[in-house]
Amino acid sequence: MAISRARRNRMAELGAHVILLAFAVIALFPVLLILINSLKTKKAIFRQPLEFPTSETLDLVGYATVLQQGNFPLYFWNSLFVTGASLFFILLFGAMAAFALSEYKFRGNRLLGLYMALGIMIPIRLGTVGILRLMVTTDLVNTHWALILVYTAQGLPLAIFILSEFMSTVSSDLKSAGRIDGLSEYSIFFRLVLPLVRPAMATVAVFSMIPVWNDLWFPLILAPAEHTKTLTLGAQVFVGQFTNNWNAILAAMALAIVPVLVLYTIFSRQLIRGLTSGAVK
Amino acid sequence: MIEVEQDLMVSERKKKPFRWHVLVFLAPAVIVYTMIMILPLAETLRFSFFQRDTTTQVVSFVGFENYIKLFFDPYWVEPFLNSLWNNCYFFLIHMLVQNPIGVLIAALLSMVHLPGKKLYRTAIFMPTLLSFVVVGFVWKLMLSPLWGVSKGLMKSVGLGSWYLPFLGKEETALTTLSLISVWQFIGIPMMLIYAALLSIPDEVIEAAECDGVTGISQFFKIKLVLILPTIGIISILTFVGNFNAFDLIYTTQGPLAGPNFSTDLLGTILYRTFYGQQLQPGDPNMGAAIATVMFFIILTGVAIYLFFIQRKLTRYEM
Asked: pLDDT tens string for chain B (318 positions)?
């Protein structure tokens, strides 16, 4: 769409490919390095770090160690559940609040908007001591819900901020028409507005997903028990335990990377469609 | 929450019946956010006005003493200013490297018309998905003289003599970390700018072409102007993220933000003060004071953006 077909320039496009390829290589190289070395013998890791594993240097000992020692499938499920549930609540509660703030006039509206936006600026970590105390009194320590609550609170401010921007662009004629047709406010929100702000929802989903999935801090403090350990925490504990066992560490890293790649591949089509759906040409 | 309710009551009593739906829409988000984020943070703020006596272990109210210590006691003020300066530098590198490269990649992506497009996008977005544990570990490994991957690579392109243990030297460590951080997060500005470029209506582009504005000049005169608001949002998100940065430094350089505190950011100094490490016992009250100051620094930055920069950005209806 960017350049009209008639004028599309072969040379320019080739140049674009070359530059993009260079950036892609820079982005992927470290990831690839971990993946190929996780499959090698210790000697080969040090002597030929840049070579792909051959029949002589192929060694799965790292993976064997990891899968015997760690509960990786369980960690993966924990991460998936916590991330999924947090995303659901961030999107639902965030969209509802954003709708109220952008749609209705009431006293204190602006103030409430500012109050919710405060959270964008402050890392929730600064409140760790208070959060821990709260979770202990409510007996939520070492449960998935402790993490889900914290991540929901952490994700809401940005979600509301982005979604309000988008909700205010939804045409008011449409909403008025809905009201004249006798739709309740809830139907207007769920049936008219939500489908229209799907691109923004996808954007919010990805931006909220990444820090939640990769967080190390709160799992360490709120849910370090074996049955609630997340993947990131599992990998980190592993690095601490196996300081000199490079095969095991690289394998653990590889195992921490792969699920994210799979998840992203699943979601990426949705995300791109979401990000650009306002621009269907 | 209650205030909102009262506000609603007051404003509604005169006119319509009370609008319950507004409350229903707002309640879940406001309750969760207030309980889990605001109240614990308020506790942090309250903490910063107290101090534990080292001998008697009694915690007592000390007013602004912690803040006075932070700003005037050389033992505190030097590391604090050092980390503040480092943080500004960290942010500056992001602005100078991340945004232009993000715009460049997005612009190139919108030129390319092959299936390769999706692969490039996924590849460049990949580092953003990785956890800091992985990012810190892999870069430490690659740059370490011990394993020598980067040395070997630089040799192969004839830059062998330029190799330094980048993370181990005071002069280069912070720049290296900033660039690693850019490498990690470049996917986000790329995605947002790409989406903004795609949402520019065809009519605008066609009109420009009719007026003979094409190619590079079209990009700078038309498209860049139209995506400025997006770049503004990216900048403010980067600013907030950078001034909260902690994990990358922690996983690569450890809590002491070495070498010799040259990579110390506000986040790491906060962590050390709060939880302590080899050289000092944890001091949650002093940590709370630093957290509060950080909050005001970020607030100031955001206010400057909202009142001075965003107002100047013309938003075009698209």
From this structure: 555 555 555 554 555 678 889 999 999 999 999 999 999 989 888 889 999 887 888 888 998 999 999 999 998 999 999 999 999 999 999 999 999 999 999 999 887 676 678 889 889 998 988 888 889 888 988 888 777 677 777 777 777 777 777 888 888 999 999 999 999 999 989 988 988 888 888 888 889 889 888 778 888 888 888 888 889 889 988 998 899 888 889 888 888 888 889 999 998 998 888 877 766 778 888 988 998 899 889 889 988 888 888 777 766 655
Q: Cβ contact (<8 Å) for B47 and A129?
A: yes
Nearest to B40 by CA among A136, A83, A232: A136
Q: Which residues contact B18 (CB under 8 A, 6 or more apart)?
A: B8, B9, B12
Residue B263 and residue B253 in contact, taking contact as beta carbons nearer than 8 Å: yes
* Among candidate residues B206, B241, B47, B36, the one with its CA nearest the CA of residue B132: B241
Cβ-contact A129, B40 below 8 angstroms: yes
List the one residue out of B84, B105, B45 whose CA is nearest residue B291.
B45
Selected for mutation to probe chain B from A111, A121, A257 (highest B CB count within 10 Å) is A121
- Quick check: A108 and B148 CB within 8 A? no
- How far is A251 from A141, CA to CA, in rounded Å? 30
Contact (Cβ atoms closer than 8 angstroms) between residue B303 and residue B313: no
Give the tens place of pLDDT for each residue, B61-95.
998 999 999 999 998 999 999 999 999 999 999 99
Strands B59-61 and B50-52 come out as: antiparallel
* Distance (Å, whole) CA A101 – CA A113: 7
- Residue in A149, A127, A128 with CA at minimum distance from that of residue A138: A149
Query: CB distance B26–A100 less than 8 Å?
Result: yes
Return the structure tokens found at B161: 């003599």
Identify the DSSP state of B63. T
* B227–chain A Cβ distance below 8 A for any pair: no
Give the model confidence (pLDDT) of B92-151 as tens digits: 999 999 999 999 999 998 876 766 788 898 899 989 888 888 898 889 888 887 776 777
Spatial distance between the Cα atoms of A156 and A95, rounded to a whole number of angstroms: 9
- Cβ atoms within 10 Å, residue A168: 12
B42 contacts in chain A (CB < 8 Å): 130
Tokens of A149: 């609550």
- Chain A nearest C-alpha distance from B175 (Å): 17
CA nearest to B116 within chain A: A17
Distance spanning both ends of chain A, measured CA to CA:
8
Nearest CB to A97; choose among B26, B107, B128? B26
Contact call for residues A97 and A160 (beta carbons, < 8 A) = yes
Query: What tokens were used for B246?
Result: 């902690």
Name every chain A residue with its beta carbon within 8 A of the beta carbon of B317. none
A32 contacts: CB under 8 Å, gap ≥ 6: none
Residues in chain B: 318
Of residues A115, A124, A268, nearest to B122 (C-beta): A268
Prediction pTM value: 0.84
